[in-house]
Amino acid sequence: MFFRRLREGLHGVRQRWSGGLSALFSGKTTDAAFWDRLEELLIGGDVGVDLSLRYVDALKKEAGAKGLSSPEQLLPLFEEMMVSQLSAIPLMGEPVTLKKGELTVLVFVGVNGSGKTTTAGKLAFQWTKDGYDVLLAAADTFRAAAIDQLQVWGDRAGVRVVAQQQGSDAAAVVYDALQAARASGAEALVIDTAGRLHSKHNLMEELGKMYR
Length: 212
Ligand SMILES: Nc1nc2c(ncn2[C@@H]2O[C@H](COP(=O)(O)OP(=O)(O)OP(=O)(O)O)[C@@H](O)[C@H]2O)c(=O)[nH]1
Ligand SMILES: [Mg+2]
What we know:
The chain is of the alpha/beta class. The protein has 2 domains: 2-87, SRP54, nucleotide-binding domain (Four Helix Bundle (Hemerythrin (Met), subunit A)); 104-211, Rossmann fold (3-Layer(aba) Sandwich), CATH 3.40.50.300. 56% of the residues lie in helices and 9% in strands. It has helices at 2-16, 21-25, 32-44, 49-66, 71-87, 116-129, 146-157, 170-183, 201-211; strands spanning 104-108, 134-139, 160-162, 188-193. It has a 4-stranded parallel beta sheet, sandwiched between helices. The chain is elongated, with a radius of gyration of 21 Å. Bound molecules: guanosine-5'-triphosphate (GTP) and magnesium ion. Magnesium ion binds next to helix 6.
């Protein structure tokens, strides 16, 4: 299931980088220009310089070892590399299950508009319906109306929302929420955060602080 979705996802990425990866892998040869272009596309796609270079290197080695020379033959290897990289992340693709009388903390992180707040609200709603004691935390203190948006979900689900005013420290909201969740014996703390690109350094730093 996860792999199928990932494969579809990768397929989607291929399509969006039209004239990009898909064109590259439908080319004729894996000459120096091919490898340069692959590196360029990966870095341009925000894969990160180190990881991009590692991918290119590993793919080159595999191609050599297996005696593959056409881009088409390399595509499945490339996909496999991406999949194994992602599935090495602990709990990747695993369902989140709550335990009665135990606190589970869930942090929603993702690029802008990817559905964090909506999913946080829906989960809080569903888990409340399932009889769990849930708490929402409005750690998106960045975008105007983000706190209200979560509050609406909280009202709908009958779930308490821990929030401070807009512009306050997101890590402080998380700290407050964690205290409140522990004090009240909550079973799920669902934390909504501000949308961010992984390439925005200061916002990633903020995540690190929340985690601590
Ligand atoms: N079709 C569809 N739309 C969704 C889904 N989840 C969210 N949306 C819509 O996508 C838009 C963005 O959703 P949000 O939940 O606000 O996304 P977000 O990640 O919190 O956005 P930011 O806080 O701005 O980063 C809204 O218009 C939602 O109604 C979904 O599962 N399906
Ligand atoms: Mg949001």
